[in-house]
Amino acid sequence: MTYLSLFLAFLRVGFFSFGGGLAALPLIEREIVNTYRWLSKPEFLELLALSQLTPGPIAINAATFTGFKVGGMLGAFVATGAFCLPSVLLTILVVTFLSRFRENPYVAGFLRGLRPALLALLLRVALSVIQDGIHDWFGLLLSITGGALLFFGKIEEIPLLLLGGALGLLWYGWR
Amino acid sequence: MIPLIRRELVEKQKVLSEDAFLEALSIAQSLPGAVAVNTASLVGLMIGGVTMQLLFILATALPSFFSIVVLAFLFLRFRELPLIQAFFRGALAVVVSLIVLAVWQIGKKATEDWIDLAVAFALLVLLLRTGIHPLYVVLLGGGFGVLLRR
């Protein structure tokens, strides 16, 4: 049953995650935290941090991680495969039948209409990480300083994450 | 990932033209799923049919797959340790800055006019207030597009 649920959950994520990994996060969170409770909210956030440290697509990371936690290697395989399955099917469809599918006005309208949906999902992601990822003034300080350093191109993402972790270790581990 | 695929297939192996690669990339971005997986899948199909497609997808997904399995194994075993928790609290604070900045950069490009902004705002309120499944936000946005933007 667990394997079937993993399969269906990540199949849904695979079919509806338009516009890149970040916009897929509400979809992923809904399935693995709210519907099936495979991960707690803090675990989900920690998964986000782990995903930022590894190069692969975030949705694949989430599928593999969750599958592994719930069903071991087989679970990881099922969840990751289920996420990739829509890509396999849709790309075959496009290459064999619909190479000009985007010129269809309905498809073009649908894709155009996804833009505001994408923005809504992204804002929801930003609001929820602000709410859940910052617990105290030290976190707020780290976050603002880190954001400013990134914005002005003074630091790369992975060094910043490791630096944030190290400062967290010093500050929170001390007490 | 994408620049790597391009360099390997277009520049080194010369099995794909630059135009075909760009076409694949732009289709990959309009399909659901991870862009890297879609791109690998499309160029695989273009070069050598379904067998090549499946091989390309495996080759794209396996490195992340194994690194995440190893990380998950370690993480699930040690996550309760106070020092690991302290590390993640600090890392998470900067994850917030990474994500907010990325949202700002992508979001800026996502909207073109006030209709986009109004629809986005309505969908956001719906998402926050009613707890609908996010896939309906995708369907509603797409549906509006079919009605208004053809």
Provide structural commentary:
The complex is a heterodimer of chains A (175) and B (150). Chain A has helices spanning 2-16, 21-35, 41-53, 58-96, 105-133, 137-151, 157-173. By secondary structure, chain A is mainly alpha-helical. Chain A has two domains: 2-131, no CATH class; 134-175, no CATH class. Chain B is mainly α and 150 residues long. In chain B, 86% of the residues lie in helices and 0% in strands. In chain B, helix 2 packs across helix 3 and helix 5 runs antiparallel to helix 6 (134-148). The longest helix of chain B is centred in the middle third of the chain and has 44 residues, at 35-78. Chain B is flat, with a radius of gyration of 20 Å. Classes of the chains: A mainly alpha (175), B mainly alpha (150). Chains A and B meet through helix 1, helix 2, helix 3, helix 4 and helix 5 of A and helix 2, helix 3, helix 4, helix 5 and helix 6 of B.
What's this, in brief?
The complex is a heterodimer of chains A (175) and B (150). Chain A has 175 residues and is mainly α. Chain A contains 7 helices and no strands.
